[in-house]
Every structure is written in structure tokens, then in C-alpha cells.
Amino acid sequence: MERDEIKRLNFLLQIYIDVNVDKDFSVLSKSADPFFILNMDGQLVYVNDVCETLLGFSIPELLQMRLSRIFLSTSLNESQTFFFEKGREKLTNFDAKISMRPESLMDVNVTAFPILFNKDVVGSYVVLKDITQIKKERQLLSEKQAVAGQLAAGIAHEIRNPITAIKGFLHLMARDYHGEPMYYDIVESEVARIEVILKELMVLATPIKKKYEKLTISSLLDQVLALMESQMLLNNIQVDKKFSFLEESILGDGNQLKQVFINYIKNAIEAMPNGGSILIEGSITEEKHAQIRIIDQGCGIPPDMINRINEPFYTTKEYGTGLGMPVSYQIIEEHKGKIDITSSNKGTCIEVSLPTFYKIK
User: Fold this and answer.
1) Separation of alpha carbons 318 and 359, rounded Å
2) 46, pLDDT greater than 50
């Protein structure tokens, strides 16, 4: 890129910061996760207070630094201005090591996504998360899920027997029922809905025997999209597939993984009640993991909700059970995978990372 062009983009980035970030219109809260803004030269041009605390440098010191002062050179590209084999034009997430004060290293999870201004990519937001803290949060979530699982097992057991009786007598009564058919249909559909909820409760409560087999990733995703095709057409949703893997495989339970991706795509559809586009990206990382990203154009998820989204029974939907996300999280964890969710007012990205078949072996 020509030097004059870089100067122009850096100038536009400063305008963006002056207009948006300093007036609290940023997509990120100043008091949320540690983040900084990076210009096209690899220079830090904005740093929030939380980042100052994490790195142990003052904000004036950080604003004199380049990316190469914080990240190990192995994480950066040849020009040392951005991350190794990561594009500025799209959201990217990976683990890396950073330098802190006093001179020490920290393992962090990095999320970088582009800043667009006047249709140009003028810089990047870079969000950091202490991996140690992430592990603590996952442990706490695991403990909560264990307690919720025991509760769910008890609830499901108590409800299952009477529901079975109600369903049986309902079918007997239907033979002699001559009233409005709609009333019977409503009762039957509601009983079926209760059975679906019970099934989800049992998935959360007790481990189900899984059938692990070699699965071609692209075929699995194509089958999921075929199942969701009618729902997407009804909701005026377009799908853009960008898979860079061909015959790579994972080892897993096909039905359970389909359940996960159907749930995430369904959530993406519901996030766009007026229609829109869903981007599904797929690639293989350097660590030989299959990385699948489902990106919608909805209004986004508030930060306080993202932190609770995998909690059992937590939902903001009028008819939601609060079980879809925690069940999906549990399935991916059991497949030795990871889930990362990032969101802004322009949409949400759910990223699923699963070890490939030869990685598992």
C-alpha cells in the first residue's frame, strides 16, 4: 500500500475516533473488555482504561507504541503492522502471547475486527481477554450447568409421566370429539412443545450415548442448510457460503452437531425479523482446527447478555426455553471444541472451532 494512501486512511481513522469513540458512540464500551484501536501503520491510536490496567502501561505510554511492542513477532505479519495471516477486512479470533509490565508474558484471546469509514477499512478494533480468566469463567459455568442438570433431571422426571398420560387420553378423546378442530390442534401442539422442552432438559441433565464417526465438514453444513432452507425462504434470508475446506473431516456425532448449527442459524434468522443475509464461513486454522463462523446482520447482543448466554434457562425470547445455547455449548465442549461469540449493533458472529479428524487421533 502506498504511503500517501496509508496517510489518508490514518487521517480518516482519526476523524472516526473523534466523532464516534470519544463521544461514547463506540461499538465497545470503554469500561468493558480491554481494547485498543490500531491504525494502518500498526500504531495504537486509542486505548481504553481497562487495557491500561491489563498491560501495566499508562495510556500515554501505550499511544507511543506499535503492535510489535506488545505482541511477539511470531504473531505478526512481515510488516509487523497486523497479525500473521489475518485479514483486516474481516473479524478474526485467535490466541496469542503479549508483553506486559513488569517484563512478563500473558496468554490472551484476541478478537480483531475492521473499522469502516466512508466505505474504507481505516483501522481495527483489537479486543483482549485474559485466557486465565476465560478458564475460570468456563469452570464456573460448568459447575452451574452441573447443578442445573441435576435440577433438570428432577423436573423432567416429574413432568414426563403426567404428560404421557395426558397425551394418551387426548388421543382417545379425539375419536369422539366433534367440536372446533382448531382447539384440539392447539392442545396437541402445546403437548408436543412440552415434550420438546423435556427432551432438551434431558440432554442438559444426562449424557446421551453418542455415535462418533468421521464427518466431512462441508457435507455436514450443507445438510444443515438444506434443513433450514424453507425457514430461510419464509423469513427472506439469503445465505452466503464461503468454505475454504473441501474434504477435511471431524470426528463427532452428526445428529448432535447438526442440532448445534441448526440452533445457531435459527438464532441468526430470528435476529433479522425483516430479512437479511447470513454469512457462513469455514476454514482450517494453522492448528488444524475446523473454524466455522455464522455471521448475521441483526441488531446484536448486549455485552451483559453475551456473558450469560450459555447459562441454562436464561433467555430473552418470549417463548424461549433458555436451553438451546447451553445445550449447544455442552455438545461442542464434549467434542473438544470451542465457541466464541462476538457482537455489535451491526450483527453477531458465532465462531465454532472443532479439531479435525487427524488432529483428534
Assistant:
1) 41
2) yes
